[in-house]
């Protein structure tokens, strides 16, 4: 049995009023099934371990954000039945919510519907590929959604997607006719907001780590001499990458 509380709107369970869900969309981190575009330069085992570091760092930032806003962390996971895998990854105060649906857009729609169904006042869906997003970004999203008036919140990724979408009410239109995993996602979502007449609050831009080029960028951001003197937004990821370089040199994952 999982030590996390698993949300099931059909049971009638309701969360504390006026909370924003800060939900990470996640697949159970098994070797060969996550971060596959990072192999090579990583092995499948290293890619899965890096994914765990990403989740721990995001969870840490979300936990810090809950201290600055009325919000709660949620792991929105797949496959169903793998809840125990998150025992040593996500803090015990996180809820878990199983994903439903087949296509990515469907999974986002059902996740938002289920979180609203559990009583959350607002919902943020967050990707698991951006470990350097600051806690202040998540807190800002929750505070914006607590304000009166219709709006959504978007955290742009510089590849044309977004690392966060925040909703005050369920609007399926934001997830329909979107070219997922392309550079058009952010602009198409902005178009959907214009169609329904909803203002968009933009968070600071960040980046996804999903291929060797962005892995090199991550190394430069976390491991360069200018960064070592300041605390990293992603301490688990920083430690993991630095240990690979210490053992094997930097050429395999961060060539000069």
Textual characterization of the structure:
The chain has an eight-stranded mixed β-sheet, sandwiched between helices. With 256 residues, the protein is of the alpha/beta class. Helix content is 36%, strand content 17%. It has one domain: Spore Coat Polysaccharide Biosynthesis Protein SpsA, Chain A, CATH 3.90.550. Helix 1 (44-66) links the parallel strand 2 and strand 3. It has seven helices and eight strands, in the order ββαββαβαββαβααα. Helix 1 runs antiparallel to helix 7 (235-248).
Please summarize what this structure is.
The model has no long low-confidence stretch (mean pLDDT 94).
Key terms:
256 residues; alpha/beta; Spore Coat Polysaccharide Biosynthesis Protein SpsA, Chain A; eight-stranded mixed beta sheet; 7 helices; 36% helix
How are the SSEs ordered, and which strands pair?
Elements: E1 5-6, E2 20-27, H1 44-66, E3 71-78, E4 95-98, H2 104-117, E5 122-126, H3 135-146, E6 151-156, E7 162-167, H4 185-196, E8 199-202, H5 212-223, H6 225-228, H7 235-248
Helix pairs in contact: 1-3, 1-7
């Amino acid at each position: 049995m999982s030590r996390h509380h698993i949300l099931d709107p059909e049971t009638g369970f309701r969360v504390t009023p006026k909370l924003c869900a800060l939900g990470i969309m996640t697949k159970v981190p098994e070797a060969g099934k996550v971060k596959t575009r990072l192999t090579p330069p990583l092995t499948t085992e290293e890619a899965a371990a890096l994914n765990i570091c990403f989740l721990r760092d995001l969870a840490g930032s979300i936990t810090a954000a809950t201290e600055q806003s009325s919000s709660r962390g949620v792991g929105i996971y797949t496959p169903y039945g793998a809840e125990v895998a998150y025992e040593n990854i996500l803090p015990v105060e996180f809820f878990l919510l199983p994903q439903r649906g087949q296509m990515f857009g469907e999974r986002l729609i059902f996740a938002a519907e289920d979180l609203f169904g559990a009583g959350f006042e607002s919902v943020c869906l967050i990707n698991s590929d951006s470990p350097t997003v600051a806690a202040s970004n998540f807190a800002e999203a929750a505070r914006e959604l607590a304000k009166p008036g219709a709006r959504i919140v978007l955290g742009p990724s510089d590849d044309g997607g977004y690392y966060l979408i925040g909703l005050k009410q369920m609007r399926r239109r934001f997830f329909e006719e979107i070219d997922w995993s392309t550079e058009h996602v952010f602009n198409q979502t902005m178009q959907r907001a214009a169609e329904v007449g909803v203002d968009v609050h933009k968070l600071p831009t960040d980046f996804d780590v999903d291929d060797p080029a962005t892995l090199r960028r991550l190394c430069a951001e976390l491991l360069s001499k200018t960064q070592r003197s300041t605390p990293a937004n992603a301490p688990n990821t920083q430690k993991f990458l630095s240990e690979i370089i210490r053992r094997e040199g930097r050429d395999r994952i961060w060539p000069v």
